[in-house]
Amino acid sequence: MAAVLPLADLKHQVRPGSWVNSIIKGDCVAALEALPDHSVDAIFADPPYNLQLGGTLHRPDQSLVDAVDNDWDQFASFQAYDAFTRAWLLACRRVLKPNGTIWVIGSYHNIFRVGAIMQDLNFWLLNDVVWRKVNPMPNFKGRRFQNAHETMIWASRDAKAKGYTFNYDALKASNDDVQMRSDWLFPICSGGERLKGEDGKKVHPTQKPEALLARVIMASTKPGDVILDPFFGSGTTGAVAKRLGRNFVGIEREQDYIDAASARIEAVEPLGKAELTVMTGKKAEPRVAFNTLIEAGLLRPGQVLTDHKRRWSAIIRADGTLAAGGDAGSIHRLGAKVQGLDACNGWTFWHFDDGQGMRPIDELRVVIRNDLAKLD
Ligand SMILES: C[S@@+](CC[C@H](N)C(=O)[O-])C[C@H]1O[C@@H](n2cnc3c(N)ncnc32)[C@H](O)[C@@H]1O
Q1: Cα angle 365-367-372, degrees, rounded to a multiple of 5
Q2: Does residue 14 have a pLDDT over 50?
């Protein structure tokens, strides 16, 4: 079973990080306050919807609709809901790393209030992603449109947050080389994935589909990251995080949900390292300075570089610059200068002779990057 931590124990944890990969039992605001500053890489929050249901709902055949009428979804007023939302969002903001991001999912009942409060608290909205349901519940009364989507707000900690994870290249490659859009089509959670009790009833009324969480996690986290879910429910975030080689911390106040989530996560087999490697584009590759090639002995001071047709040449100096005629500068600046251009990519312009032909110095940069990758 995944470890379960009573809130009282969490406050006395001596080992830093001992709450990682466990479910904290208790109110999320109190639990969040017991976690260290800047300790999680990402947050997925599926808070109460505050559905404001007025009485029971029946289908045309008079059978009862299994609506969300649980105590945890009841708030006395919009003001009470807003005060609660402000408290848990503020607490989340403190535990989120400066380059971390938060996802909050909701319906028309709550997402606009949540979004406004997020902006008031200085979160910076990056996208609203619409989860369009393949198989939504009908509108039984026929007096409104069928409610066929939920909205997820994705935000960074503030407007200046830099370096947040967005696996753009991998998402695009997985989408037939087309940019991933902000409207996602998934079925609601059903079939074998839906947790059921011995009585055949759903364990949790709002269990989210694993495919939805998988896309959220693959888009905005890296293997090894810690993902916090302050409204853990049946543990969808934990199950998917474990499968995808990420860590989780869940907070939930209902023991029945904790028991179901814990058993569910225990049964998950994580994927292997090879399957989890995230594809990156050129922008994400580590920066390698020209001087590194000299320091690594791949090029030497005094060596001559030329363009691939040997029209222009320059000599490598010990300080990592190139010199030609009376000019000196970086590989880029001197490449531009000799051609009379404003700019030049020195990595592809300058070539060296390896005894068998002319090769761009960019190939030596790849050698360094491959060596760096082996150190990971
Ligand atoms: C919308 S459900 C989340 C469902 C979850 N995403 C899943 O896939 O199973 C919200 C959950 O938050 C829990 N909850 C509500 N208020 C809470 C609070 N103040 N502290 C901790 N948990 C809370 C509820 O018990 C419920 O399980």
Answers
A1: 95
A2: no
